[in-house]
Fold:
Amino acid sequence: MTSQAVGDRPLRVGVVGLGWAGQSHMTAYESHPGIELVAIAGREPDLRAELGGRFNIEAAYESADSLLEHPKLDAVSVATPTFLHAPISIAALQAGLHVLCEKPLGRTAQEAASVVQAAARNDRVLDVAFNKRGRPAVIALQRLIAQGRLGRIYYGRAHWLRRAVVPPDGSWFLNQEAAGGGALVDTGVHVLDLALHVLGEPRVSSVSAVTFAELGPRGLGRRPVTLDLPRKQMMGTGFEVEDFAAGLLRFDDGGALQLECSWAAYQDSADSFGLELFGTEAGARLEIGTADPSADTLSVFGEVAGVPAKADVPRPPASTVATGSHADIVSTFVAHVTQGRPADLDLHDVLSRSSIIDACYLSGRSGQQERVVPGSELLSAG
Ligand SMILES: NC(=O)c1ccc[n+]([C@@H]2O[C@H](COP(=O)([O-])OP(=O)(O)OC[C@H]3O[C@@H](n4cnc5c(N)ncnc54)[C@H](O)[C@@H]3O)[C@@H](O)[C@H]2O)c1
Structure:
């Protein structure tokens, strides 16, 4: 465990990116007693002025480069388009700052590995904003699995299927070079992270995957125009990425996980996010609601005296658990910086998400099952 205490004073942070994600980091930092939010950066002058005023921030810069020169910073959040995650995170780490980076850490596993290497070389904390992990029902499921209540889990399904959330036309999300992919690398990475996290980080050896862009390029699957939508940074005009992806992931131990995600899909539910797990002692189904963690459900299925049985698992009381929001990841980040990063928090696990996604895209193109490159291999190559 490396200790990164900053003494008795608050941790001084900056946020790069003024969109939905950057504002979520700002809100979380503002309400954390151990944080002083001192600088923000982003291209939009009106947002710089508005957010600078709202969060009472002393310095608002147009670029990440300028923010990184701010003399008072201990740490930064990186909440920019994905192609900038690695270069900005690496520059921050090299400047001696701790980094909380938005997901995905990079467009590719190699890019993500370069950030992990920079964190290790500069002995700084690097966390990635997987903010779904702290939801009470997720924590309850993770505990059941860790206690062995499901037995050996041999198969699972993980999905985040959304009916109509294609990002705005012309935004960087639809640009392959800027985003590194579509629904899979954007939202699929959340449910992939959740599945691997609750399963105790099994190693995925290979994947067979498919990607589709059937609705998005035809102008379908957009959010209703009546909604007040957050604006996105614009970059290009084409629809270059997938709006639907699915894959079968094989684990080293012989188990498997089916992964499905979409920005656009003709289905009943507007937003369906969950895990189904099949174990030798019991099965479990976790369903995650949209914004409100109290709507999440967790059920366990087994057999009592030869009769199928189902139990709805009560969630831990809200006061004893985190809420599954950016406030959680910010709290965890601050704890890592001030108290040291737990030794069992392995950055190879962070890399595994990117390696699996790389292999999914490769498999989608090749039509073959593809090997997942282990994090250790990526790091030794860099
Ligand atoms: N964890 C989550 O739940 C979650 C949710 C939404 C988005 N995200 C992630 O957050 C990131 C940002 O997404 P968003 O929707 O907020 O995007 P956005 O387009 O709304 O905002 C991007 C911001 O980055 C700024 N920016 C771009 N280049 C910059 C530079 N060189 N220096 C400083 N600022 C720069 C832009 O000015 C803009 O303010 C993405 O990686 C996305 O995947 C995560």
Residues 1-5 have pLDDT under 50 and may be disordered. The first strand starts at residue 11 and ends at 16. The longest helix spans residues 347-366.
